[in-house]
Amino acid sequence: MADENTKGYEPIPFAKKHRISVEDAKAILAKHGDDRKSADKEGRRVSL
Q1: Which of 9, 32, 36, 37 has the least C-beta neighbours within 10 A?
Q2: How far is CA 31 from CA 40, 48, in A?
Q3: 30: which residues sit within 8 A by CB, 6+ positions away?
Q4: With contact defined as beta carbons under 8 Å apart, do 42 and 17 qualify?
Q5: What distance lies between CA 5 and its chain's CA centroid?
């Protein structure tokens, strides 16, 4: 569950959204932090 101060994605919903592994989702979210636009872009790239 997300910390109340966290504005970013949670790894599992992010992984489901982009149809990628949870490990990939965690790595992307760690790299991009709260930048949803760049995280989504990377998620789409990995899912191909």
Answers
A1: 37
A2: 12, 19
A3: none
A4: no
A5: 17
Q: Six-digit token pair at 46?
A: 């990995």
CA distances from 11 to 3, 19, 41 (A): 13, 11, 15
The tokens of 45 are what? 């790239």
pLDDT band at 47 (very low <50, low <70, confident <90, very high): confident
> What is the distance between the alpha carbons of residues 44 and 38, in angstroms, rounded to a whole number?
10
Matching residue, tokens 């959204």? 17
* Pairwise CA distance, residues 3 & 24, whole Å: 21
